[in-house]
Amino acid sequence: MASTRLTRTPSSTTNQKIWTFSVWLKRSGLTEEVIFNNKNTGGSGEELRLFFKDDDLKFQSIAGGYDFQYITNRKFRDTSGWYHIVCSVDTTQTTPADRIKIYVNGVQETSFSTATNPSSDVNLWWNTNTEFQIGSNQNPNDWFNGVMSHINNIDGTAYDATAFGETDATTGEWKIKTSPSVTYGTNGFFILKNGNSVTDQSGNGNNFTVAGGTLTNTLDCPSNVFATLDAIQYKTSALTYSNGNTTVSFPGAWVFALSQWGVSSGKWYWEAKCNSGNNANSFYGICAEMVPAGNGFYNNSQNGAIMYKVGAGETYIDGSYNSSGYSPSINNTDTVGLALDLDSATKTLKIYKNGSLLTSGGTINLSSYYNDTLVFPCFSGNSSSASCSFNVNFGNGVFGTTAVTSAGTAGSTPGTFEYDVPSGYEPLTTKGLNA
Predict the structure, then answer these.
(1) Are 348 and 341 in contact (CB under 8 A)?
(2) Do domains 5-212 and 236-433 have the same CATH topology?
(3) What are phi and psi for residue 379, nearest 5 degrees?
(4) How far apart (Å, rounded) are the C-alpha atoms in residues 243 and 229?
(5) What is the C-alpha separation between 343 and 273, in angstroms, rounded?
(6) DSSP character for 118?
(7) Residues near 172 by Cβ (< 8 Å), separated by ≥ 6?
(8) 3-class SS at 161?
(9) Domain limits of the chain?
């Protein structure tokens, strides 16, 4: 969904008083991001929208003043997991507080910094024959830059969250009902079901159009969350993250980007591609939790960090520089595979080029710096003389906005990689971590 806008204009206006909207989503940053928006571009200019403002969730209708407005006290700062958000609306309810109900991960929100209830029996600007937007507003701007899945709109019924999700009896986690038993109504729809299809799955034929950006399928989902890069803690010196935090571009300073997740045991595999351009100042590898976040690696490589330089075959390993650290060289558009073994008696990091282990320097035995600490996938760069950026595939099946089309053999945990996953290694996912 990153910087992607979906639109549909209903052929008629239906029930504006009673309806439900349900969406599963994963944030990638803490900015202003529109989930959905509907605006009357004529008359009063009434606008109804659900959006994030930094770490707040806001649901509001505006027409000169606020028809209603809710701002949660709960903060939405998690960019590593999924949220299920349900807005259940029935303005015919006698009790004002019952007219709008917001659920997050199956629980009704009751604590708000602002709670302005709608008037009794009021028609809200919803299920109208004006353009409906998902992922941005009507301008468009305030893009939603994360991932969305299983979007349902219900015309004429106010459902609670249990219509679309349920508690897993084994894990206790809130999970998707992939085929909810609901009555959709005339303007109801169900899109992004188990993929990137905007074809309506409700049976109504209320299909959407991709009006901007590229709608890319990803295996990252609420039942199997994949690692991404950490755009919250590692956003120094104007690092730029995109594509759901699977692409990172570096500024004119030596900084690095880490995965959101570190591991202290197990065998893990991920892939990366250095983007086109003269990326001589591009590095990939691992680092231990002990390495200070503000440190770079060029000419002052740190103990607890192993970095391979793109193109030149140079390495920085625990403070030691080697000008011919590996071969053959790895260039732009080559797929780099990294296999981290923290279980064997001798812990190792292995580097693959387009599916083949490097013939020289491809296996590094890890030092004691990597014992009893979290180890992170790591990328470093400096774009002062080049456009330095990486696309990372932790198994979600996408490099940037380009999906893997001819996948290699996967491990026992679901994940899609361009080349075969080495035997015994798994993608960095919640299923992999819990295996």
Answers:
(1) yes
(2) yes
(3) -135, 145
(4) 10
(5) 26
(6) P
(7) none
(8) helix
(9) 5-212, 236-433
Burial zone of 43 (CB within 10 Å; 0-12 exposed, 13-18 middle, 19+ buried): exposed
Region of 45 (left: φ > 0; alpha: ψ -120 to 50; beta: rest) is left
**SS3 call for 369:** helix
Written out in words, the top-level CATH class of the domain with range 236-433 is mainly beta
363-384: per-residue pLDDT in tens? 999 999 999 899 999 998 877 7
Determine phi and psi for 112, rounding to 5 degrees.
Answer: -130, 140
Four-point Cα dihedral 395, 401, 405, 406, nearest 10: -50
CATH no., domain 5-212: 2.60.120.200
Task: Identify the sign of the CA torsion 422, 428, 431, 435.
Answer: positive
In the chain, what percentage of residues exceed pLDDT 90? 58
- According to the per-residue pLDDT averaged within each range, which of 10-19, 23-32, 142-151 is highest? 10-19
CA 74 to CA 65: how far, in whole Å? 24
The top-scoring range by mean pLDDT among 151-160, 172-181, 226-235, 274-283 is 151-160
Contact between 225 and 218 under an 8 Å Cβ cutoff? The reply is no
Backbone angles phi, psi at 131, to 5 degrees: -60, 130
Average pLDDT over residues 244-262: 85
Find where tokens 């997050």 sit: 104
Q: Are 344 and 338 in contact (CB under 8 A)?
A: no
Q: What is the mean pLDDT of residues 53-63?
A: 90
User: What span, in angstroms and rounded, lies between the C-alpha atoms of 428 and 259?
Assistant: 10
Spatial neighbors of 368 by CB under 8 A, at least 6 apart, are none
CA-CA-CA-CA torsion sign (360, 366, 370, 374): positive
Helix, strand and coil percent figures for the chain, each rounded to 5? 5, 40, 55
Query: Whose CA is closest to 20, among 191, 151, 165, 178?
Result: 151
Pull the structure tokens for residue 350.
């292995």
CB-count burial class (<10 Å; 0-12, 13-18, 19+) for 295: middle
